């Protein structure tokens, strides 16, 4: 027998002690993780976590829920009732969330309405507190191709990633449109995904109550057997957890998937491969995740086609220098229509106020689309908006005498000011 295996020898004893220590180390770490997960409800109800949650809800400027309580009015109520009414009931498992208030807003493309569910301010604070503690637990599990509602990620990074893939030869995209995604999440599947990561039953039960809290519409409460209504702080995180199953499945197959919440693009190098990916994606999403594809909007397109590909308001183009990011023509048309409304001559506001409103809108628009090539577009808009503002000011001057006087103040010669001020032309 070799010396290192003889009982009592120093080398073997040290190996045994090292292995034993490593086993103890792994066991202790797993125990800490279990204890940490089981103490999750305490971390959610921690005073600092709740204060951060309230500040975030206040920053979001949300509308009141079915109780009519505003964000400002909620603060004194929470200070007075937080311990007895809210926290104690949550710890005991007797807390019942209020139904959400139904609100419908038209979709930007005019294809219908988006149904929002607005929780009460108190429930929004609790949901935000839950989300703040769950996000670090699930963030490491999410796919690298998932970008929506994740810290440090943005829509601009999404389109840059698509551009990088297009430069690598992925010239075809499968645009996947999920029909009423937030309203059709399967509760049992979602809760099972949560249970894999959260052993604390109290947290699971609380989330389940929010999923089942119901919807108040026209004074009538409707039960919710599926879905997670948009409007609550938990919905984006739950949506990411649910679709992460699809992300991981496709990633395991070596498929390039880019997802921003429920907006999904699957990339391929040929149209035939893209068609196969569309079919396999539909099978997985409908059979495994119980979701429904919008067959009319889910399609295969060329990424650099001038008309077809659109993702988060962006598109891609190709010229002699290669692939470039541009603003989709529908987004441009929508922005121009908005600017036309802001500079309408019938609104009766001061010209300075109109200019300020236009500046605020353009600043926000450029802040979103800044990654796109739009120098020529903005130059055209500049000329067009200056003309719109001249039209606005001209109408406000109204009478020929006022126009002549103001033109002269601007340095126009008297004969020219008289001619322009008395013209019948618009």
How does this structure look, described?
This protein is α+β, with helices and mostly antiparallel strands. It has 15 helices and 10 strands. The strands form 3 sheets. A 4-stranded mixed sheet has the order 2-1-4-5, with no helix packed on it. Strands 6-7-3-8 form a 4-stranded antiparallel sheet, with helices on both faces. A two-stranded antiparallel ribbon has the order 9-10. Strand 6 and strand 7 form a beta hairpin. The longest helix has 29 residues. The radius of gyration is 29 Å and the shape is globular. It starts with 9 loop residues before the first helix and ends in a 5-residue tail after the last helix. The relative contact order is 0.09.
Proportion of residues in extended strands: 5-15%
Number of helices: 15
What is the CA-atom radius of gyration, in angstroms? 29 Å
**Structural class from helices and strands?**
alpha+beta
Task: Offer a quick outline of the entry.
The chain has 426 residues and is α+β, with helices and mostly antiparallel strands. It is 55% helix and 12% strand. The chain has a 4-stranded mixed beta sheet with strand order 2-1-4-5, with no helix packed on it. It has a 4-stranded antiparallel beta sheet with strand order 6-7-3-8, sandwiched between helices.
